[in-house]
Design a protein that fits this description.
Keywords (chain B): Oxidoreductase
Radius of gyration of chain A: 25 Å
Family (chain B): Belongs to the GcvP family. N-terminal subunit subfamily.
Pfam families (chain B): GDC-P
Subunit structure (chain B): The glycine cleavage system is composed of four proteins: P, T, L and H. In this organism, the P 'protein' is a heterodimer of two subunits.
CATH class of one domain in chain A: Alpha Beta
Helix content of chain B: 25-40%
Distance between the termini of chain A: 11 Å
CATH architecture of one domain in chain A: 3-Layer(aba) Sandwich
CATH superfamily of the largest domain in chain B: Type I PLP-dependent aspartate aminotransferase-like (Major domain)
CATH class of the largest domain in chain B: Alpha Beta
Largest interface: A-B, 204 and 206 residues
EC number (chain B): 1.4.4.2
Largest sheet of chain B: 7 strands, mixed
Number of domains of chain B: 2
Distance between the termini of chain B: 65 Å
Helix content of chain A: 25-40%
CATH superfamily of one domain in chain A: Type I PLP-dependent aspartate aminotransferase-like (Major domain)
Shape of chain B: globular
Oligomer: heterodimer
């Protein structure tokens, strides 16, 4: 161990210490061995730590200080919508009547929870312009797969068995093709044109009677609105395919354009992005899916419905694709998203998008002088720069990202989308102040100058973090994936 | 429009518009075709103040019968266990919950190390070599285990025991449809997987056999006998397991399981109407490079300091794209952290003690039911759940129990027609002798 290493909890452990307080054992005890079949009583103790409660709190407090969240500082991670996570959401999700109810209780005893979910569905229907919504998928990728499974079931129900291809743009996130594969479909790529938008000629070339769906995010991963969206949807619909909306970028179009009105048949949302469910260090998320009327029969089971004054779980769905998750989705995240929507209201949600787009355009214009701007037009909630000018000076986009760490910023998304060289993708969100945007811009300008005058300081960054650049090659070549007692 | 989450002032806005070179914000949306432009405002409820909204939602929450105000004997995959108070304090540190996936390891060492510790603890409890950073839940983890097995063995049939959680089996069916796999159920006999029936079903097309330990009916499956049959046929042995029970049960890894999955909800994660919980996924070393989801590995920096990174990413969807065998991206990291804190608080001794307490209290309850004249069906070795024949509709019984502040057990007739009128009763360490005695008495009164 290096003397500056942060100890693992296992290295803090001391035999004899405890960190728990279990309920009293108030029943007569039987011989444990007699209660289990022979050979099924655990012999070896698991290597779990033995620590006091203060040891635990100090350990995790120490870990938390080695972690950057939105509450720590600016986090312009493109396509992830790292906006402020309102604290009221956390309080509401912890109410006993939400946090401590069991999914298999009698429906009559969880009417409050079902009402909330039903009302969330109603709100999401209006926001997306779709006809029905399921809250079952646990995350965006899970929602993509759910939506594609429904599209597949729709075509199969029509006896249209040749439709096995999903068209995705070359700028799409890797999850789109992966979801298609897991749904038993094949991926076809459609090219982007020089404006960064779907190339209509190429789209016409790839659509056909084998097209199950086109998956698109709008604005796309370059932060650009697909201006030809109406025509795109028509081309796919005329060929008999469905159009799928990846809601990753919904923060750009709240109250400005609804997927349902743009011609999309299926949409998934990332409630942990646009609707402030916290990102949690990688999850849990929530990925509701909205559909147009002709896909309603295929929604996952059960559907949360209202009959008279009563909220019910409707299992009688013969054409349903089935369950995609036990119970009814990531309820706790859905409660947070609902709380957020109700905190904003219609005018608040409209302002969210206006400020998100204003902030992105402001940053883009101020940085355009110092970094290459591959697509020079109004962006939506995010924009991409290219670090190719700096690359010629020996400073890569990765170096720029690492240098930002020295100033307390989380770097933007880098090297994505794949169709932009040395890509830097910046999404400020609407919850940041002008002062924060300006301070980030100033540092980006400083780094651009450093790349010209003193490239080593960028190439060797970060200089101030608790660890320097880590050896990822060795990590992958000789994987150490768990602690082993020395 | 003034809102506490929106910091821009009118002055800021004007200055920014000037820099951009436009006169109104609307101009920035001129690329949205007129035809699809949404005009006006959403027809949704108006915004509420913080105070008013909290009041409204508190009242809505109060309309649910919660496990704090009532006494619960409901388990069936989601459990009311001891939640060390410290858990919520740790996961409420916003450096954890407002971060995203640790893509920049230099400023994400806290999260990465916490996951590395989680992976270690899951390996220790399950007796496996490698565990990932989490899955959505136990049900999807089980389905992904079947997918991995099919990909690894290049076989197309999954055998699943009927004593696996019914909702997990439903999720498996959906995933299997996606991958054009056949799912065949292995029947249950006397409360456990029917070994003879299994022998008749395994063949060279079978990619995996999936069982649950303890199973959905509360019983301890004979993993030793199952393993021999499964591996003789070169199929993968997949065990779905409540990790808390493994504090006292011999871990599936000891019996030769290839993949162990389940849900870490029993460790410090609230029931929350079924989610978010925390799936886990553990395998033997030979399957390490086929695990879905994220893995954290240990390495060093240029000065030799220990650090942690996301590793073996070549497996993942964002690299493999359409060659990926799983599309999982977001996981349940914050809940994995919660489970880690709970496992840490319990520690080596506590995890044994809590598991033993479940075994003892459930055993006491089982005996009390028998003494009161109830039939305990398929009685045998069990963990914290067992089946009682009530001879009447369980739904009605539960509605009556609720009047007395008791959330009764699971209605098995929902999934097993032959078990109509039977209740799956769960007794965790949380239940007191008095509460157990009250349940037996109340059911006895209803029975009479």
């Amino acid at each position: 161990m290096h003397n500056q290493d942060q100890k693992l909890i296992f290295e803090v452990s001391t035999p004899g210490r405890v960190g728990y307080s279990l309920p009293e054992m108030d029943v007569p005890e039987a011989d444990v061995a007699a209660l289990l079949p022979e050979g099924y009583l655990r012999e070896e103790e698991p290597l779990l730590p033995e620590v006091s409660e203060l040891d635990i709190m100090r350990h995790y407090t120490s870990l938390s200080r080695r972690n950057h969240g939105v509450d720590s500082g600016f986090y312009p991670l493109g396509s992830c919508t790292m906006k402020y996570n309102p604290k009221i959401n956390e309080n509401v999700a912890r109410y006993n009547g939400f946090a401590h109810i069991h999914p298999l209780q009698d429906e009559s005893s969880v009417q409050g929870a079902l009402e909330l979910l039903y009302d969330l569905q109603q709100h999401l229907k209006e926001i997306t312009g779709m006809d029905e919504v399921t809250l079952q998928p646990a995350a965006g990728a899970h929602g993509e797969w759910t939506g594609l499974m429904m599209i597949r079931a729709y075509h199969e129900a029509n006896g249209d068995l040749k439709r096995t291809k999903v068209i995705v743009p070359d700028s799409a996130h890797g999850t789109n093709p992966a979801s298609a594969t897991v749904a038993g479909l094949e991926t076809v790529t459609v090219k982007s044109n020089e404006d960064g938008l779907v190339d209509l000629e190429d789209l016409r070339r790839v659509v056909g009677e084998d097209t199950a769906a086109l998956m698109l995010t709008n604005p796309n991963t370059l932060g650009l609105f697909e201006e030809n969206i109406v025509e795109i949807a028509e081309i796919v619909h005329e060929a008999g395919g469905k159009v799928y909306y990846d809601g990753a970028n919904l923060n750009a179009v709240l109250s400005k354009a609804r997927p349902g009105d743009m011609g999309f048949d299926v949409v998934h949302l990332n409630l942990h992005k646009t609707f402030t469910g916290p990102h949690g260090g990688g999850g849990p998320g929530s990925g509701p899916v909205g559909v147009k009327a002709d896909l309603i029969p295929f929604l996952p089971r059960p559907v949360i419905a209202k009959r008279g004054d009563e909220y019910v779980l409707d299992y009688d769905r013969p054409q349903s694709i089935g369950r995609v998750k036990p119970y009814y989705g990531n309820f706790g995240i859905n409660v947070r998203a609902y709380t957020y929507i109700r905190s904003m209201g219609p005018d608040g949600l409209k302002a969210v998008t206006e400020y998100a787009v204003l902030n992105a355009n402001y940053m883009m214009r101020r940085l355009a002088e110092y970094y290459d701007l591959p697509f020079d037009r109004h962006c939506k909630h995010e924009f991409v720069l290219s670090g190719r000018r700096q690359k010629k000076l020996g400073v890569r986009t990765l170096d720029i990202a690492k240098r930002l760490l020295d100033f307390g910023f989380h770097p933007p998304t880098i090297y994505f989308p794949l169709n932009v060289e040395e890509c830097i993708m910046i999404e400020p969100t609407e919850t940041e102040s002008k002062e924060t945007l300006d301070s980030f811009i100033d540092i980006m300008i400083q780094i651009a100058k450093e790349a010209e005058e003193n490239p080593e300081i960028v190439q060797e960054a970060p200089h101030t973090t608790v660890v320097g650049r880590l050896d990822e090659t060795t990590a992958a070549r000789k994987p150490v994936l768990r602690y082993q007692n020395a | 429009m003034k809102h506490r989450y929106l910091p821009m002032t009118e002055q800021d806005k004007q200055a920014m518009l000037e820099t951009i070179g436009v006169s109104t914000v609307d101009e920035l949306f001129s690329d949205i075709p007129e035809k699809v432009r949404f005009k006006g405002e959403y027809n949704i409820k108006p915004a509420k103040s913080e105070t008013a909204l909290m009041k409204e939602l508190f009242q809505l929450a109060s309309r649910n019968a919660d496990l704090k105000s009532n006494v619960s004997f409901l388990g069936a995959g989601v459990y009311d266990h001891y939640m060390p108070v410290i858990v919520d304090h740790v996961i409420s540190r916003s450096e954890f919950y407002t971060a995203y996936t640790p893509y920049q390891p230099e400023i994400s060492q806290g999260e990465l190390q916490a996951i590395f510790e989680f992976q270690t603890m899951i390996c220790e409890l399950t007796g496996m070599d490698v565990a990932n950073s989490s899955m959505y839940d136990g049900g999807t983890a089980l389905a992904e285990a079947a997918m991995l097995s099919a990909g690894h063995t290049k076989r197309k049939t999954i055998l699943v025991s009927s004593a696996v959680h019914p909702e997990s089996r439903e999720v498996l069916e959906t995933y299997a449809k996606g991958q054009y796999l056949d799912v065949i159920e292995v029947p249950v006999k006397d409360g456990i997987t029917d070994i003879e029936a299994l022998k008749g079903l395994v063949n060279a097309d079978v990619a995996a056999v999936v069982v649950q330990y303890p199973n959905f009916l509360g019983r301890i499956e004979p993993l030793k006998e199952l393993e021999e049959i499964i591996h003789e046929n070169k199929a993968m042995f997949v065990v779905s397991s409540n990790p808390l029970s493994l504090g006292i049960l011999t871990p599936p890894g000891k019996f030769g399981a290839d993949i162990v999955v389940g849900d870490a909800q029993p460790f410090g994660i609230p029931t929350a109407f079924g989610g978010p919980h925390c799936g886990y996924f553990a395998v033997t070393t030979k399957l390490m490079r086929k695990v879905p989801g994220r893995l954290v590995g240990q390495t060093t920096d240029d000065q030799g300091r220990r650090g942690f990174v996301l590793t073996l990413q070549a497996r993942e969807q964002h690299i493999r794209r359409d060659k990926a065998t799983s599309n999982i991206c977001s996981n349940q990291a914050l809940n994995a952290l919660a489970a880690s804190v709970a496992m840490t608080a319990l520690g080596k001794k506590g995890v044994r003690e809590i598991a033993a307490a479940n075994l003892q209290k459930a055993n006491y309850a089982k005996i009390a039911f028998k003494v009161a004249g109830f039939e305990v069906v398929n009685d045998g070795h069990s963990f914290n759940e067992f089946v009682v024949n009530l001879n009447k509709p369980v739904k009605e019984v539960n509605q009556q129990l609720l009047q007395k502040g008791i959330i009764g057990g699971y209605d098995l007739g929902r999934d097993y027609p032959v078990l109509a009128g039977h209740m799956l009763i769960c007794v965790t360490e949380q239940r007191t002798k008095e509460e157990i005695d009250t349940l037996v008495k109340e059911l006895g009164d209803l029975h009479a």
